[in-house]
Amino acid sequence: MFSKDIYVSRRQQLQGTVKSGILLFPGNGNVGMNCRDNWFHFRQDSTFLYYTGINQPDLYFLIDIDNDKEILFGNDLTPEDMVWVGAADPLQVFADKAGIQEVRPLKELASYLKTASGKGQKVHYLPPYRAQTTVEISEMLDIPTQEVANQKSVDFIKAVVAQRSYKSDIELSEITKAVDITADMHIHAIKNVKVGRTEKEIAAELEAIASSKGSSISFPIILTKDGQYLHNHATSAVLNEGDLVLVDCGAETLMNYAGDMTRTMPAGERFTDLQKEVYNIVLDAHESSIAALKPGVLFKDVHELAASRLVEGLKGMGLMKGNTEDAVQAGAHTLFFQCGLGHMMGMDVHDMENLGEEYVGYTETLKKNPAFGFRSLRLGRALEERFVITVEPGLYFNPFLIDKWKAEGKYTDFVNYDAVEKFKTFGGIRVEEDLLITKDGSQILGKPVAKTVADVEELKNS
Amino acid sequence: MFSKDIYVSRRQQLQGTVKSGILLFPGNGNVGMNCRDNWFHFRQDSTFLYYTGINQPDLYFLIDIDNDKEILFGNDLTPEDMVWVGAADPLQVFADKAGIQEVRPLKELASYLKTASGKGQKVHYLPPYRAQTTVEISEMLDIPTQEVANQKSVDFIKAVVAQRSYKSDIELSEITKAVDITADMHIHAIKNVKVGRTEKEIAAELEAIASSKGSSISFPIILTKDGQYLHNHATSAVLNEGDLVLVDCGAETLMNYAGDMTRTMPAGERFTDLQKEVYNIVLDAHESSIAALKPGVLFKDVHELAASRLVEGLKGMGLMKGNTEDAVQAGAHTLFFQCGLGHMMGMDVHDMENLGEEYVGYTETLKKNPAFGFRSLRLGRALEERFVITVEPGLYFNPFLIDKWKAEGKYTDFVNYDAVEKFKTFGGIRVEEDLLITKDGSQILGKPVAKTVADVEELKNS
Ligand SMILES: [Mn+2]
Ligand SMILES: [Mn+2]
Question: Which cellular component, as a GO term, is one annotated location (chains A, B) (predicted)?
Answer without folding.
Answer: cytosol
